[in-house]
Design a protein that fits this description.
This protein is α+β, with helices and mostly antiparallel strands and 452 residues long. 37% of the residues lie in helices and 21% in strands.
Length: 452
C-alpha cells in the first residue's frame, strides 16, 4: 500500500491532518492512516482512543461547514501495532475550509496526486457554483472581512433593525454563519461598480465627463441617482402666461431604469453597470440577460422573475421598489404621451434600456416648426403641385410640413397649429387619397409624402 490520490499516511496525529481531511472532502474522498510513516512502515499509535478524540475535536471545531457526517473512524492492528483510520467521503457542501482561514486559498485544500494543496480561487468558485442550485447572492463570499456602515445608516433612516437575526433573515449570513455574496454587495467592500459617462453629440466619440461609483451597492444606487438628477437638464417653455418645465428624461423612468439595473443584474459576471448619456438619449447597460424561464414577451407583459430575490427584498423593504415586476411598465408609461418610446435590448449576457431625451426631441421639433412657418408661403405650393390634386382646407399646410422633413402626427400638429382632431382627419384623408403613406403602427406611425 502506497500514498496516492485517495490515500495518506501520517506517522502520528497532528493538527495539520485537518488539511488532508478537507482536501479529501473537496475532491474524491480518501483514507488517512495514522501510525504509518511516509515510507509505508507501520509505527503504530500508543493511545487509539486519545487519537480518535483529537481527530473528532479537531475536525468538528476547525472545519466548516460541518463535515462530521462525511467522516468515519476505525482502528486496525497491522504488524502487531494499532493504527487509526480516518475514512473521508466527498462532501455535499463544498468547499470545506479551515474556520480560522476562511474561504480563501490558504483555507481551502484539494487533492492533487498524493499531496493536499491550497485550492485556487477559480477552483473555489467552481466548487461554490456546482454545490446545489443556490442563487449567486446566497453563495458564501470569498471575502469574509466585511463592514456595513452604509447599510446600518440606511436601515436606521428607515427605522429598520439590522442585528444578527436580521442578517440571517435577509440572507447576509449563510446557515454556517459565514457572510454571503449578498452581504458583500451591501458592504463597503463590494467589488462591483457603476460607471457613468457623458458624451458630446449622439455617439461615443468624444467624452465630456466620466465618473465611477463604488462602495456598498446601496450607496452606489443613491449617489448615481443624485448624479443623474443633476445631469437631467430642465428646459422651460412659456405658453402665454404659463411656464412649463420639461425634464430631459422623466425622473421616474430614469430612476426605475437605474434600480432595475442594480437589482436584476448578474453579479456572478465581473464588470460594471454602464450608463452613457448622449445629447439625444441615455443608455443603461447591465450584465446578465433575462433570468432563465423569462422571455422578452413575458417581460414586456409585466411578468417578473427575480434573479437576486434577497437583494430585491431589501430594496423593497427600503421602499426603493414599490412592487415587483412593475419597473418596465412604469418606464413605458412615462413616455406614453410623448410620441417616442424607450427601447429594451436583451442579449444572452446583457440588458440595455435606452431612454429618449425629450428636451432634445422637443428642441428639434420646435426648430423644424419654425422652419416650416418661415417657409410655408414658398414650400407648400411645391408639395401641392407635386400631387396636382385639389384638397381640403389645411391639407396644404400639412403637406408643406411633411416636405420639410416632419413625419410624426404630433410634430405636424405643432408645426401647423391645428387641433388633434383636425390633424388626424387631414392625415387620414391624405392617406386615403394616396397622396401620403402611413408607415409603422401605434406610437411608431410615420407619415411620408407620395410624390409622383
Amino acid at each position: 500500500m502506497t500514498e496516492g490520490m485517495r490515500t495518506e499516511f501520517k506517522r502520528e496525529y497532528a493538527e495539520t491532518i485537518r488539511k488532508t481531511v478537507i482536501a479529501f472532502a473537496n475532491t474524491e474522498g480518501g483514507t488517512i492512516y495514522i501510525g504509518i510513516d511516509d515510507d509505508g512502515n507501520v509505527v503504530g499509535v500508543e493511545d487509539v482512543d486519545d487519537v480518535q478524540k483529537k481527530v473528532v475535536s479537531s475536525c468538528r471545531d476547525g472545519i466548516a461547514p460541518d463535515i462530521m457526517q462525511f467522516i468515519a473512524l476505525d482502528n486496525q492492528i497491522m504488524d502487531g501495532k494499532s493504527i487509526v483510520i480516518i475514512i473521508v467521503q466527498r462532501g455535499t457542501s463544498c468547499p470545506y475550509y479551515l474556520k480560522n482561514k476562511g474561504i480563501r486559498p490558504e483555507g481551502v485544500y484539494v487533492r492533487r496526486g498524493s499531496a493536499s494543496i491550497p485550492a485556487s480561487r477559480a477552483e473555489i468558485l467552481h466548487m461554490i457554483r456546482v454545490t446545489g442550485d443556490a442563487h449567486y447572492e446566497e453563495e458564501r463570499s470569498l471575502l469574509q472581512e466585511l463592514s456595513f456602515g452604509t447599510m446600518k445608516h440606511v436601515f436606521a433612516e428607515h427605522q429598520l433593525e439590522l442585528g444578527e437575526v436580521q442578517m440571517r433573515t435577509l440572507g447576509l449570513r449563510a446557515a454556517d454563519g459565514e457572510y454571503t455574496n449578498l452581504a458583500r454587495l451591501l458592504s463597503e467592500e463590494c467589488s462591483h461598480t457603476i460607471k457613468v459617462a457623458v458624451f458630446q453629440g449622439t455617439t461615443k466619440t468624444v467624452f465630456k465627463k466620466r465618473r465611477e461609483f463604488s462602495g456598498s451597492i446601496l450607496q452606489q444606487a443613491s449617489d448615481v441617482a443624485d448624479y443623474l438628477d443633476v445631469l437631467n437638464d430642465t428646459r422651460s417653455e412659456i405658453h402665454g402666461l404659463r411656464r412649463t418645465d420639461l425634464r430631459a428624461y422623466p425622473p421616474e423612468a430614469l430612476r426605475e431604469a437605474l434600480i432595475n439595473a442594480v437589482v436584476h443584474r448578474e453579479y456572478a459576471l465581473s464588470g460594471s453597470i454602464l450608463i452613457s448619456l448622449f445629447d439625444n438619449a441615455v443608455e443603461i447597460l447591465s450584465l446578465g440577460g433575462l433570468p432563465e424561464g423569462l422571455t422578452y414577451a413575458d417581460m414586456m407583459a409585466g411578468a417578473s422573475i427575480q434573479r437576486n430575490p434577497h437583494l430585491a427584498n431589501i430594496f423593497y423593504r427600503l421602499e426603493y421598489i414599490e412592487a415587483y415586476g412593475t419597473g418596465i411598465r412604469k418606464i413605458r408609461e412615462c413616455y406614453r404621451e410623448t410620441g417616442v418610446e424607450p427601447t429594451f435590448l436583451v442579449t444572452d449576457n446583457a440588458f440595455k434600456v435606452t431612454l429618449p431625451n425629450l428636451a432634445f426631441l422637443r428642441g428639434q421639433e420646435v426648430h423644424a416648426s419654425t422652419i416650416v412657418r418661415e417657409r410655408q408661403t414658398t414650400n407648400y405650393q411645391a408639395a401641392w403641385d407635386a400631387n396636382d390634386v385639389p384638397g381640403r382646407p389645411g391639407e396644404k399646410e400639412i403637406l408643406a410640413a411633411l416636405s420639410s422633413g416632419l413625419t410624426t402626427r404630433r410634430a405636424l400638429q405643432e408645426a401647423t397649429g391645428f387641433s388633434l382632431t383636425k390633424t388626424r382627419n387631414i392625415l387620414n384623408h391624405l392617406v386615403e387619397t394616396q397622396r401620403i403613406r402611413r408607415d409603422g403602427k401605434g406610437k411608431n406611425v410615420r407619415y411620408v409624402l407620395q410624390l409622383a
